[in-house]
Amino acid sequence: MDNVLVNKVLADIPPSFIRALNDRKRPTSLNLGLGEPSINPDTDLVEDGLRKFRNGPQGYTRNAGLQPLREAINAFRPELRAHPDRVLITQGSQEAVFISLAALINPGDEVLIMDPAFNIYAPITRLFGGRPVSVAMDPADGFALRADAVRRALTPATKLVCVVSPGNPTGRALNDKDARALAALAEEHGFTLLVDEVYRELHHTDAPAPTPGAYSNRVITVGSMSKNCAMTGLRVGWAILPEYAYSTAIKAHQLCATCAASLCQYIALAAFEHNALFRHREIYKKRLDVTLAAASEHLRRAPTRPEGAFYVMLNFRHLPVASVKLSEMLLEEEDVVMVPGEAFGPSAHGFFRISFAQDDATVVEGIRRLGNLLRKHGWL
To answer: Residue 3's pLDDT is what?
Structure first.
């Protein structure tokens, strides 16, 4: 393609390796690569949402979204000390990230991104003329999210810091010390924190992870219905924004989507009214235990136990083959999709991400086949 005819920044963004790998799978493939729940949205929530939709206005909502839904999200997160008029309903969490960066980034601004992380923050930053800066988390520390690493990376050009807690691909979450420290850094240095919390309700600890938004007003908190309620196809997310960013983000949202689909917003509202956002948590806690046991049995490896989400990271840096090549071999020889760590940033080089969003039998068989591949080549 002639780059003169298209947006050069977009043209130069490489395609998602995760999607490319999934596009190569066969009908028989076991998929431990895509972070999408295997369960469907709960019927009672869909039916209640449909009832609300039939009885209510069915056209465009306000740009910011249904007022009852915004109020429900605000009430659900009292520790953020926000207001419904700072809640913006979006077409999934990725649009929330997109319009947040659109609202804040000017050419030349630096955006620090904790690495490894889901691969949307750097391309969006480049699209708006910003400069993404990878901040490596330590594999020897289990990729724990550490504020000290961010502190060392700060420069006068730092405009935004992106944190995913619990994280994709690691499942690691902020502890209270680091959440407070990040909030203090934002206050001291005048940058904005974007905290992506789409996996917050799928925690494997006694309570959801601490959030910097509880300690600073310089925080954008992003959430979604996709993972906690298995509503990936409904595309309902939100951003809770500082007052200084809200009106600009609304403009970006107007240009991008006008509003989220009203029917989907009603279904999301039903989930809040039924207190359903933690309903699937126990499913994934049990799947985590099954996944760790299978890794121990078939791979003789013990991944770091994540605080949330439905991922574990496996360290294969000792192997004589790169994890990208290993993922291709696994698909070709064992018919299993797994994503190499390089897809999420350089600090995860040599790792594999295993998604246990699928049922137990699929996850265990996929791990068994990975072990079979390693034994076949003399690597286990």
So the answer is: 64
In the chain, the percentage of residues whose pLDDT exceeds 90 is 89
Residues 259 and 250: beta-carbon distance below 8 Å: no
Tokens of 106: 């000017």
Read off the tokens for 130: 């910003």
Residues 314, 297: Cα–Cα separation, whole Å: 14
**How much is the pTM?**
0.95
Looking at the chain, list the stretches that DSSP marks H as alpha helix, in order from N- to C-terminal side: 8-12, 17-23, 43-55, 67-76, 92-104, 121-127, 147-153, 176-189, 243-256, 262-273, 281-299, 323-334, 360-376
Fold of 58-273: Aspartate Aminotransferase; domain 2 (3.40.640)
Residue 60's contacts (CB-CB under 8 Å, 6 or more residues apart) are 258, 259, 262
Query: Which structure tokens are listed for 104?
Result: 């804040």
Report domain extents, the chain: 3-40+279-376, 58-273
| Domain covering 3-40+279-376, topology | Aspartate Aminotransferase, domain 1 (3.90.1150)
**Contact between residue 299 and residue 314 where contact means Cβ atoms under 8 Å apart:** yes
For the chain, which residues score pLDDT lower than 70?
Answer: 1-3
